[in-house]
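Dear colleagues,

As part of the handover before I leave the project, I'm documenting each prediction I ran so the next person doesn't have to rerun anything. This entry is a single chain, and its sequence is reproduced below.
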Amino acid sequence: MSVADLLAVLFPQFALLHVELVRLAGGAVRVHARSRAPGAPCPGCGGWSERVHSGYERRICDSAVGDQELVLQLRVRRFFCDDAECGRRTFAEQVPGLTFRYGRCTMGLRKVREAVALALGGRVGAARTPPGRRAGRRR
Protein backbone atom coordinates (compact mmCIF):
# COMPACT_ATOMS: atom_id res chain seq x y z
CA MET A 1 0.00 0.00 0.00
CA SER A 2 1.39 3.36 -1.00
CA VAL A 3 1.34 6.49 1.13
CA ALA A 4 -1.31 7.98 -1.18
CA ASP A 5 -3.52 4.89 -0.68
CA LEU A 6 -3.06 5.10 3.09
CA LEU A 7 -4.03 8.77 3.12
CA ALA A 8 -7.10 8.01 0.97
CA VAL A 9 -8.24 5.42 3.52
CA LEU A 10 -7.52 7.54 6.62
CA PHE A 11 -8.69 10.87 5.18
CA PRO A 12 -11.39 10.22 2.55
CA GLN A 13 -12.61 13.81 2.98
CA PHE A 14 -9.42 15.00 1.26
CA ALA A 15 -9.99 12.97 -1.94
CA LEU A 16 -10.97 16.07 -3.94
CA LEU A 17 -7.99 18.07 -2.68
CA HIS A 18 -4.40 18.45 -3.75
CA VAL A 19 -2.47 18.34 -0.46
CA GLU A 20 0.61 20.53 -0.76
CA LEU A 21 2.04 20.39 2.76
CA VAL A 22 1.37 18.73 6.10
CA ARG A 23 3.15 20.15 9.14
CA LEU A 24 2.95 20.22 12.91
CA ALA A 25 2.63 23.75 14.28
CA GLY A 26 1.87 24.65 17.88
CA GLY A 27 0.29 21.33 18.77
CA ALA A 28 -1.94 21.28 15.69
CA VAL A 29 -1.57 19.39 12.44
CA ARG A 30 -1.86 21.89 9.59
CA VAL A 31 -2.77 20.61 6.13
CA HIS A 32 -2.19 23.07 3.29
CA ALA A 33 -4.33 22.13 0.30
CA ARG A 34 -6.31 23.34 -2.71
CA SER A 35 -9.10 21.94 -4.83
CA ARG A 36 -8.28 19.60 -7.73
CA ALA A 37 -11.28 20.76 -9.79
CA PRO A 38 -10.60 23.12 -12.71
CA GLY A 39 -13.74 25.12 -11.92
CA ALA A 40 -16.92 25.20 -9.85
CA PRO A 41 -20.68 25.48 -10.29
CA CYS A 42 -22.34 28.80 -9.47
CA PRO A 43 -24.62 28.41 -6.41
CA GLY A 44 -27.07 30.90 -7.94
CA CYS A 45 -27.69 29.47 -11.42
CA GLY A 46 -25.73 26.19 -11.43
CA GLY A 47 -23.63 27.24 -14.41
CA TRP A 48 -20.05 25.96 -14.57
CA SER A 49 -17.21 28.47 -14.47
CA GLU A 50 -13.45 28.14 -14.83
CA ARG A 51 -12.76 31.87 -15.05
CA VAL A 52 -10.92 32.80 -11.84
CA HIS A 53 -11.62 36.16 -10.21
CA SER A 54 -9.30 35.91 -7.19
CA GLY A 55 -8.35 33.62 -4.34
CA TYR A 56 -7.92 33.53 -0.61
CA GLU A 57 -7.09 31.10 2.20
CA ARG A 58 -9.67 29.58 4.56
CA ARG A 59 -8.81 27.92 7.85
CA ILE A 60 -11.19 25.06 8.49
CA CYS A 61 -11.18 22.84 11.60
CA ASP A 62 -11.54 19.08 11.21
CA SER A 63 -11.80 16.13 13.58
CA ALA A 64 -8.70 15.54 15.73
CA VAL A 65 -5.93 13.23 14.53
CA GLY A 66 -3.88 11.38 17.12
CA ASP A 67 -5.13 13.66 19.90
CA GLN A 68 -4.00 16.70 17.93
CA GLU A 69 -6.14 19.41 16.42
CA LEU A 70 -6.38 19.21 12.61
CA VAL A 71 -6.61 22.51 10.73
CA LEU A 72 -7.12 22.56 6.99
CA GLN A 73 -5.61 25.65 5.39
CA LEU A 74 -7.53 25.58 2.12
CA ARG A 75 -6.63 27.79 -0.83
CA VAL A 76 -10.02 28.82 -2.26
CA ARG A 77 -10.70 30.48 -5.60
CA ARG A 78 -13.45 32.95 -6.46
CA PHE A 79 -14.93 32.58 -9.92
CA PHE A 80 -16.87 34.86 -12.25
CA CYS A 81 -20.42 33.81 -13.14
CA ASP A 82 -20.84 34.50 -16.86
CA ASP A 83 -24.63 34.00 -16.92
CA ALA A 84 -26.25 37.40 -17.50
CA GLU A 85 -29.50 36.19 -15.89
CA CYS A 86 -27.76 35.21 -12.64
CA GLY A 87 -27.68 37.78 -9.83
CA ARG A 88 -24.20 36.71 -8.72
CA ARG A 89 -21.16 38.24 -10.34
CA THR A 90 -18.62 36.19 -8.39
CA PHE A 91 -18.77 33.19 -6.08
CA ALA A 92 -16.38 31.13 -3.98
CA GLU A 93 -15.79 27.47 -4.74
CA GLN A 94 -16.91 24.82 -2.27
CA VAL A 95 -15.42 21.34 -2.01
CA PRO A 96 -18.36 18.88 -2.13
CA GLY A 97 -18.73 16.91 1.10
CA LEU A 98 -16.04 18.94 2.84
CA THR A 99 -16.91 22.65 2.96
CA PHE A 100 -20.05 24.76 3.08
CA ARG A 101 -20.74 28.50 2.81
CA TYR A 102 -19.42 30.49 5.77
CA GLY A 103 -18.37 27.24 7.48
CA ARG A 104 -15.36 27.22 9.78
CA CYS A 105 -15.35 23.45 10.13
CA THR A 106 -15.66 20.48 7.77
CA MET A 107 -18.97 18.74 7.13
CA GLY A 108 -17.70 15.74 9.14
CA LEU A 109 -16.91 17.82 12.22
CA ARG A 110 -20.22 19.64 11.86
CA LYS A 111 -22.08 16.30 11.95
CA VAL A 112 -20.15 15.25 15.07
CA ARG A 113 -21.00 18.53 16.81
CA GLU A 114 -24.68 18.20 15.85
CA ALA A 115 -24.77 14.64 17.24
CA VAL A 116 -23.24 15.80 20.54
CA ALA A 117 -25.68 18.72 20.78
CA LEU A 118 -28.62 16.41 20.06
CA ALA A 119 -27.43 13.88 22.65
CA LEU A 120 -27.04 16.56 25.33
CA GLY A 121 -30.38 18.13 24.49
CA GLY A 122 -29.50 21.46 26.09
CA ARG A 123 -29.10 19.99 29.57
CA VAL A 124 -25.64 21.48 29.98
CA GLY A 125 -26.94 24.99 29.31
CA ALA A 126 -29.85 24.49 31.68
CA ALA A 127 -27.51 23.31 34.44
CA ARG A 128 -25.50 26.55 34.14
CA THR A 129 -28.50 28.78 34.92
CA PRO A 130 -28.05 30.33 38.39
CA PRO A 131 -30.46 29.13 41.08
CA GLY A 132 -33.66 31.17 41.32
CA ARG A 133 -33.48 32.28 37.66
CA ARG A 134 -35.23 30.68 34.74
CA ALA A 135 -33.30 30.09 31.55
CA GLY A 136 -33.96 32.66 28.82
CA ARG A 137 -35.37 35.33 31.14
CA ARG A 138 -33.51 38.57 31.79
CA ARG A 139 -33.84 40.86 34.77
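The chain is about 20% helix and 35% strand. Strands lie at 17-25, 28-35, 40-41, 48-49, 52-65, 68-80, 90-92.

All the best with the project,
I.
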